[in-house]
Structures
1.
Amino acid sequence: MPVFSPHALQSVAHLIARRMGSEEAEAAEVADHLVRANLAGHDSHGVGMLPRYVQMLHAGLLVPNQTPDTVLDAGPLLVIDARRGCGQRMANDAVRRAITRARDIGACVLALRNASHIGRIGTYAELAADAGCAFTAFVNVADHHDIQATWQAAEPRLGTNPFCAAVPGPDGQPVLLDMATTTIAAGKARVAYNKGVPVADGCLIDAEGKPTNDPTGFIRDHTGALRAFGAHKGSGLAVMCEIMAAAVAGGQGAFAPPKGGILNSMLATVIDLSKLGDAAAIAGDTRAVTEYVKSARPAPGFDDVLVPGEPERRHAAERSERGIEVDDTTWRDIRAAAESLGISTEAFDQAAAG
Ligand code: NAD
């Protein structure tokens, strides 16, 4: 598998985003977001998403340089309709506004509607945590065929509906839970399919609703479904993400007829911890919790006990040093997407050389 430096992947992503029509700042935000997702170990939300973005652009389902519509701006309540705008920029802008509001009055409830794919939710949690804020987000995924089968269902009715929560943590490192409510994110089934490897037990069902490890039907033929994690409890969280994002925040729901894009809506809360109480004491108590959890004896087969956010930091440290592997199929798809935008082979190869 070819290995690329983060800078090389960033150059390729930036080139493609610019040719998609994004102005400089937006292209830079998209490229930065995608490569940070790769660095965090979430290839499902890294540069491998670019072909899908280009496909959505060609279909008129992703709008570069969109001006979001502020539907409501009333004290702690901020409702923004992104109108299919480029997700990473729409979500960055919306969360930055929510942070500013939280700093003014203590907290902000942000309803972000109908952004094109916003990627790794943890990136926005990091933005908030870096600003000294606690962050939660219920997110849904709409506008494409359903892919999550809820508990006791033999066919899908929802998207992968991620949930995210973060607080500023010890030594400036947030404690950050960021997860799909399916056993694996859809992009991980795509990565497995592209690599020709099976997915783990319990992740997928086939068209008959029976368990399978083969991602082929799911990715190639759009049959079967990803299973909700954690039986009825994870499935319940997925349903609540859908309700919070589609009903409460007012974004498009999974039940709406899909056009084939990816729309994310999000109900997020941002709390300025220095307004809530003594931020230093909260940080101390957060450290106490994580140290206590990590003090447990590791189970057989494990070296240590981790808290949410640690695996991503370990991946980032390792990949920053060793580079990021991109499988051949994903790389071919990225190259084809670039070609469909009229990017020459020379320009592409030059960017990929870093
Ligand atoms: P995952 O299963 O790899 O990890 C989920 C969480 O578990 C992370 O917070 C991680 O820190 C924590 N974790 C992992 N291993 C751990 C361990 N050993 N001990 C303690 N904590 C541990 O993630 P996923 O569910 O595959 O999601 C991947 C990404 O996909 C996320 O960034 C999510 O935001 C993104 N996503 C986005 C969308 C969208 O539509 N935009 C949809 C679904 C998922």
2.
Amino acid sequence: MKHILFALLLFCNAYSATIAQEATSPLPDPLTFNSGKKVETTAQWTKRRKEILETMTREMYGVSPAKPKDIRFQVFDEDKNALDGKATRKQVTVHVREKDKEMQFDLLIYIPNQVKRPVPAIIGINFIGNQAIHADPGIKLTKAWVEHSGMFPCSKSGQATDACRGVNASQWAVDSILARGYALVTLYREEIASDRKEHMFQTGVHTLYPELQNREDNFSNMAAWAWGLSRGMDYLETDRDIDAKRVAVFGFSRLGKAALWAGATDRRFAAVLSNESGAGGAKQFRRGIGENINRLCTVFPHWYAKNLCKYKDKDTELPFDQHFVLALIAPRPVYLATAEDDRNADPAGEFETAKASDAVYRFLGTKGFSGTNFPALNEPIYGQIGFHIRPGGHDVKMFDWIQFLNFSDLHLQK
Ligand code: GCU
């Protein structure tokens, strides 16, 4: 009798443990191999990092082509007296050739004049074309397609016009970035890969590698945008005015998702600044709050590899969650900026990612993330992993830039 009761007790315990596990859907651990073995040494971490990179590439972001052998930089503009003498403006066309095909895109670079060079830099992709980030009439108008929306009603038949100059300037704190001693480098999303569903994989870098599409881990837009940022870095390594060892990669929203993947895949980026990247960026899919995999696959099927759609309505079955992207960035500094009304991007879910990343950052010898409780509005958390939530909606505000610059000062100005 005693034995039967004991067995029943064991069974009940095991059963309730399973239920609890299902209900909370435990977070996968970046410090545990797929085999279940724990990472205990840095040599093991090197292997585990590779395993994470392979898994995330296959299941979510898709493959990327190898670094191109045939890449050429044409500096077509240099004005040492731009922005009333505050900056040197350079514009560079990056040409990439693969067999008989070529793609090209432009970098717009402002380098502060008041500080000693080489300077640290912030590089980020923009939404509306290089000419949209500042009203400077010297900026070349993009020839790529430009959306015409309520927010940016400036293009005609998809082409940028002079009305597109500075239309997105409020999200790019050019003067503050320069005043704090950083160069700003930007490139346009459409010149790298089309963000229009009907043109997906038919423009920019995708034209060079059509063979990378007909597979489940296909070369996605996120991977393409990250590729563009890495090619920008290839140029920066050749520019003596820039210290390529001190370059932070920045991005907002979908381009914040791309910035995180660029930081994860290219260790030349010394820091990552992600603004409201949300689903497929810094938020946890497992919480089930805000945008989910189903919506990403339906509305933006070109953003991630086809494989991600296996997890439609099964977000908790992903073999990782977005703290694995931070694990790939670790131990390099990363900052996650969120906004109170940006519910779709689940600010608390981004905070959970920062918390879940603490262990890897500590394992790699940094102080990790010091946030334990969700912070009050406008109370940034600095450290190796930074975080803030500010009032307001989906946007890039001066408050966000000030925190990015303070955070960059801590890590890139020492
Ligand atoms: C949509 C999308 C988000 C994305 C945003 C943007 O709102 O659902 O995932 O971040 O567009 O890039 O502006």
